[in-house]
Amino acid sequence: MLPVHFGHWRTVYGWFRELARRFLFQTIHDVELMLDRERQGREVGPSAAVVDSQSIKAPHAGTRGYDAGKKIVGRKRHIAVDTDGRLLMVNLTTADISDSAGAQAILNAIRKRWPWVKHLFADAAYDRLKLIDKAAYLQFVFEIIRRRDGQKGFEVLPRRWVVERTFGWMIRGRRPVRDYERRIDVSTAMIHVAMGGVLTRRNAHP
User: Fold this and answer.
1) DSSP per residue over 144-161, as a string?
2) Fewer Cβ atoms within 10 Å of its own Cβ: the N or the C terminal residue of the chain?
3) Which of 74, 129, 81 is nearest to 97 (CA)?
4) How do beta strands 119-122 and 141-144 pair?
5) DSSP single-letter state for residue 96
6) pLDDT tens, 121-167?
């Protein structure tokens, strides 16, 4: 339901699609990200990132896939965050795309939008020769964070917990809890709206 003072839903959605097409939501998010880093005494441009993915149900998606490991039919969110958990890049695919394959698009996007990033952290699912070769070609240092030998049960891994916290922030929004969108570009814009809102509130009320 839209607020009573809004126009017809087709008009509102049309404006949303136009602003998403112009990457306005991503731009607002990235500006807020840099302001938040500066406010906390960090360099505006991040130099390291953590890569991970999340499979999520997408009941209305135009194209979906099946993640056999998570037993989920839907889409997969491949993301990169800075070392404090701020979202740097997101790449949406069908859920049957492997983590390493989805991350390859992330590497290209990071190099273009965040050229200061030099070091990448990831878990063992990303220890694939093709991905590591591409990272080396793009001049990234790619570090795999592994579980300790003989580890039993859950254990927080260095550099890895921040990306899990980002997924937690993301699904606090109503729309990103599941992927309700038919189009991938609209779903991506919704993620930037949700994460941009987190950063805007943080900057407005430090």
Assistant:
1) E--PPTT--S--PPTTTH
2) N
3) 74
4) parallel
5) T
6) 998 889 999 999 999 999 999 999 887 666 665 555 667 789 999 99
How many Cβ atoms sit within 10 Å of the Cβ of residue 41? 6
Q: Give kind and range of the element (H or E) at residue 31.
A: helix 24-39
Which residues in the chain land under pLDDT 50? none
Domain count, the chain: 1
1 in any annotated domain: no
Note down the domain range covering 59.
9-147+155-204
Distance CA 18, CA 133 (A): 37
Separation of alpha carbons 70 and 150, rounded Å:
23
56: which strand partners? Answer: 75
Closest CA to 200 of 88, 89, 35: 35
Helices (H), 40-128: 99-113
27: number of Cβ within 10 Å: 13
> Which residue has tokens 């606090």?
172
The region, left, alpha or beta by phi > 0 then psi within -120 to 50, assigned to residue 42 is: beta
Give the pairing of strands 48-57 and 72-81.
antiparallel
DSSP 2: -
Length of the chain: 206
Residue 4 lies in a domain: no
Least Cα distance to 196 among 2, 15, 31, 12 occurs for 31
